[in-house]
Fold this protein.
Amino acid sequence: MSDKKQNAIPQTVPVQSSTFSQTINAEIRRAAATGIYDIRGGGAKRNVPHFDDLLFLGASISRYPLEGYREKCETNVTLGSRFAKNPIEIDIPITIAGMSFGSLSGGAKEALGRGASMAGTSTTTGDGGMTVEERGHSSKLVYQYLPSRYGMNPDDLRKADAIEVVVGQGAKPGGGGMLLGQKISDRVAQMRNLPKGIDQRSACRHPDWTGPDDMEIKILELREITGWRVPIYVKVGGARPYFDTTLAVKAGADVVVLDGMQGGTAATQDVFIEHVGQPILACIREAVRALQDLDMHREVQLIVSGGVRTGADVAKCMALGADAVSIGTAALIALGDNDPCWEAEYQKLGTTAGAYDDWHEGQDPAGITTQDPELMKRFDPIEGGRRLNNYLKVMTLEAQTIARACGKSHVHNLEPEDLCALTLEAAAMAKVPLAGTNWWPGKPGSSY
Amino acid sequence: MEKLDLQALGLRALNEKLQKQTDETNQKDWEIINPRGSHAIAVGVDAPINVTVRGSTGYYCGGMNKQAHIHVDGSAGPGVAENMMSGIITIEGDASQYAGATGHGGTLVIRGNAASRCGISMKGIDIVVHGNIGHMSAFMAQSGNLVVCGDAGDALGDSIYEARLFVRGSVKSLGADCIEKEMRPKHLEILRGLLEKGECDAKPEEFKRYGSARQLYNFKIDNAY
C-alpha cells in the first residue's frame, strides 16, 4: 500500500436531506422559474395508510369457510331504498365514479358505460352534463348535480337512474375544478354554454344553497322534479366523515358517497391533492359510525372511493361497513391510461408510464383524457368497454374469494372482526386489532 | 281556471298535476292558493300554462321551469326560477338570494328588490329587476342579460363571462374582471326589448352596461390571487 493511500483521510459521504429531497428541490426550482403552482390530475401520490395495511384473518376453527368456487357468495347491492320509488339494483358492489365529458373523451365515456353495463353496474356523468353516447351505453346512469350546473337541465335529470349531489370530492374537499381551454372543443363549449378555448372554472360551492338545511330543501326540489322516482346520492370528500354523513342523512340522502384523498380529479393544484383531506381508510368507520348512531346503517347506503384497485380492496371496504365502492382512476387504467405501450410518447411529454398525470393538458397518448380528434382515434370504446368489464369481473371474483374464505355467503356479511391491521396507524383508522393483538389505539376500554 | 289549495292537496300532488300538463293541454290557467311560504312550488313544469301563486313562496319556486308563465302574487324565497330553461316567472314583491341562479333561458321579472347573488352563474336567462339587487350578483355569469332599474350591491359580476349587465342606479363595487362597457346601439335595442318585457318604466339611455374584461379567461400567474 502506498504512503499516499495510507494517509488518506476518510471522507463524509454526500447525504441527501430527507426534508429537502430531490423531489422537493426540483419543485422549488420549478416554482422559482415559472411563478405558478403545479396543476395535475389524479389523486394523492404520497404514501398514506391504506387497504394494504389490513389483512383478512380467514376462517379457522371458530369460523366455517365456504367452498371457493362453488358455494354461493352474492354480490348484488340495492342503492337508494330509503325514499326512491325505483332504487338502483346492481349486480356487483363496484360502481364507476363521476368523470366528466370534457375531461374525458366521448369515446372514453362510452367505454365506461359499455363496461359498466356488461358488468351489471352503474356509471356516473361528471361535470359538463350528460352525453347521448353515455346515456345510450349505460344501463344505469347516475347524473351528477354539481356547483357549476354545466349542461344541467330537467330533461336529462329525468333520464337519470339516480342523482348524485356533489358537495365535494376526495382529491380536493373545499375546492372547485378547472377545465383548461385546450380541452374545450366546440362540443364541450356548447354543452357548457361558454366560448371555445377559455378555461372553464367549476365553482367550489353550490350557487343556490349554503348549508345542510338548504341542502335538504334542494333535495326536496330535485325529488319533486323527478317525481320521487330516483335515488338521490350525496357525495362528500373525506374531510369530516362523521358529521358530513350525519348531515347528508339529515338532509334526506338515500345514499352517501364518500371519497378519500386518493380519489382522482381531472385537474387541481398538487398542493391541494396532497395536503387536504383524509385517506379513505380513516373515513369509512367514522361514516359507518354516523349511520349506526342514526340507526341508518344499510338503510342509507354508503359508497366509498379513493384508491380502490383490487377485489381485496373491495372486500376490505365491505368489511368496514360500506355497501359498495366506486372506482375512477382504476377504471381509466383498465381502459388503457398510463399503459407502457405509449412509453415513447410519455417520454416526449417529460414523464413516464404510470406517472403521467397532466390529464388537464389534453395530450393523453392513450386518447382517453383528451378532446384532440387525432388522439381520440387511438381509443376504441368497444375494446375499452370489454377491458373494463373484464377488470370488474376479476375484482368481483377476488372479493368473493375472500368473502368465502371468511365464511360469508354475501360480501356484505364481511365485518370488522374479519380483519386485522399491520400498522398502528391502520389499526387506529380502521378500528381493527393490530395483528397479533386484540387491541387498537382508541379501543373503548383501552387506556391508550 | 283550476284552483289548487296547496295546504289541502299537498306539495307532491300539486306538482304532479302541473307536471302532467303537456303542450296540448286545454287547461291553461291554474291558481295556487295557500302557498304559505312552501318550498319547491311549481317546479319542473314543462307546458305552456299560466300559474298564479296567491301569496309568498319559499325556496326554489318555479325551479327548472320550461314554457310556463308563473306569477307569484307575493314575494319569493331563495332560488326562485333556479335553472329555468324557458317561460316567464314574475314576482310581484321581493326575491331572496340566488334569484334566477344558473338559469339557461326564459325571463325572470322581479317587481321589487332582489337580494344577494341574483343571477349567479346565469347561463342564458334574462332577469329584469325593478328595484335593487344585493351583493355578489351575476357571480360567474356566463350568458344572458341582467337588468337592474335600481342600484347594485358589492362585487357585481365577479368573475363574469359573457353575460350583459345593465344597471340604471349606482354600483357599489365591481367584482374581479367586471368592467363598465360602452353602450352601443345594439345594446340599447336589447335593453329596450327587455324593459318592455319586464314592464319597466325606464329608458335604455339611463342605464350603464357592465361585462367581462376577459382577463381571467385563461389561467396565468397574474390571475392567481
